[in-house]
Give the backbone structure.
Amino acid sequence: MYPNQRCPPWLQFRIKASMMSRNDQLRAGSRSMDQNHSNPLRRRLWLSLGFSRRPLLSLMIAAIIPLLLFGSWVAYITATQQREQARRRAFETVNQVAERIAAEMDAQLQVVETLAASASLDTPSLQGFYTEAQRVKATHPLWETVELADPSGTQLVNLLRPLGVRLGPTADRESFDEVLRTRQSAVGGVGPVGPISGKRLVAIRAPVIRQGQLIYIMTISFIPNAISEIFKSAGVPNEWVGAVVDARGNFIARTLAQDTELGRPASPGLREAIQRAPAGFYVAPTLEGVEVETFYRTLPKTGDWSVHLGVPSEVLNTPVSRSVYILASGGFASFLLALVLASLMARDIAQRRQTEVERTELALALSEERGAVAVEAAELGTWRWELGRGKYFGSERCWALLDLPRGPDSNPEESVPTERFLETIHEDDRPTIQTAAQRCLRDGSTLNTEIRVERRDGSLHWIKVTGRALNASGGHQPVIHGVVADIEPEKRAQAERLDLLRRLAEAQENEQRRIARELHDQVGQTVTGLSLGLKALEQNVEATSILEQVRWLQSLTADIGRDIHRAAADLRPTALDDLGLRESLIAFTSDWGERFGIKVDTHFVGVDEQLPPEVGTVVYRVVQEAFTNILKHANANNVSVVVERRGQKLRIIIEDDGVGFNPDEPGGMSAVESRIDGPPLGLSGAKERLTLVNGTLEIESAPGEGTTLFIQIPLSHYELRP
């Protein structure tokens, strides 16, 4: 309860005073923190208010972490792309060099074949051919010599020697034998050191065929250094290794150590690669021991020559390795920064949480103080019922309301066994509190009941018990917490109100009885005398017109008498006083059914004794008011009334087959609660009458299904007469 809620002015004053005291403490605490700069709480409050650079530092660290990771990743991606670009360049260079060497060798083959078709070879004298060969060699500076040999391999012409000089056998017999066998031009590998040239030369041979006979094999030899120039012209970097090898795996040309490696076998990795596939990729060390990634390709029409271009693995992988180190360093640095950021955020969260805890504790203390003031001002007692332990705990006010003696120790909370607590409650109300407690634990509903306490002086005292159950899951014992309030003044006022209503009802019934007696005894007798006088006048009057008028007056007097009798019966039926409830209800329902043309069935079950006058009067009036509502609103054809006594309870059921209504809809009760003519006050009046005898009224109805009233009145407090 807070000051802005409904409470007595003195309670509002006490709560405001408490709040002012607490605010003064807060202001005093704030001034003490301003004076003492070393107070940790002050520093936490300053941090929570934003007077710290830690959030800015956290933002900077949070911004640096993704930049580091992104930069490291970009460096790694860039290095990887550079390596792939170098590999693509090596592959393209291999294709370019292979195409140029193949084109060059094809051109040389064409020249050799053209020279082999020369007419100078048709004559027995070779002087013409010697002269023509010198002329052609002069136009090809890369040629070392031109030779002509017979099918046996003996050289007949060699431009390195004069014509007619005795010459030895031709070099590179392997390519020579291939031409003899296939009679096709052929490109040989690196031959041995020639006996005439003293060099390792590359031979291109072509057959000289006349009239279907192979008469000569012509050979041109050139220095392989010219092929190395093709690699250099292709723009191969200096650290890259390029080579051309023949079918046997011997170097024809090489970008590194050309002079020393010419004709020597290539590395095992290269030789395995050309034996495995005509083109591809392999990783193997060079003759110098440098590991390279090599692309190669076999040349067409060259006798299985192959071009190889190797890129050192260090050149390719060093940038990638460096980027990996950068990426790892960036990740590690980001991890360290993340730890720093987490530490800063954890400290900030811890400080904020500590500040919130302190604020919450302060607010909780203030709230508890307000609650204590409100509870004390409202004169409420707090209690806790631990049903599992069989203990009942209560505050001082609770003990006072239960009229239990306090112990010798002035504890704020006393406890007694559950049996002792139940002994303080009236025996008729003990099942009520026990049932309410079990329902509260089972359904989680609110315990809200009114019980009577037997005080030590023998008097009864009304209290109201309200509580809620705590969650009993997880092995916890079932516990109910609540408050207890003194409602004795309210009950006393309620009893006085009921007594006043009862006396008003009795006064109303007495007044209606007096008016009914006056109508019956005085006005009724006067009307009866008037009727007798008119009867005597009828006998003495002979005129027809006067006789008819007298008869009309006599009939009118009879109607007036019946109306007065009915009004007297409605105000207070004499049968209710003389014959009791049963006979008076039977007479009323029969007369009502005949008057309005509605069939009425009235049944009495177990009602043999004479009911108390106040109960009979209430039942009669309630039935009377129900019939009035049926006549006005139900449009019914049949009505039944059942009056049944079961033990110490009287039950009345009034049912009709009328139009019915929906009690749950807004305005649905308006038809039932309409006021009727005369003293009764409709359904609200019936409920008021029933409260005088502790009775209850329930209604069941639905559109098109009629209406049923259930009335129940306890008879345990009355002595029934036979």
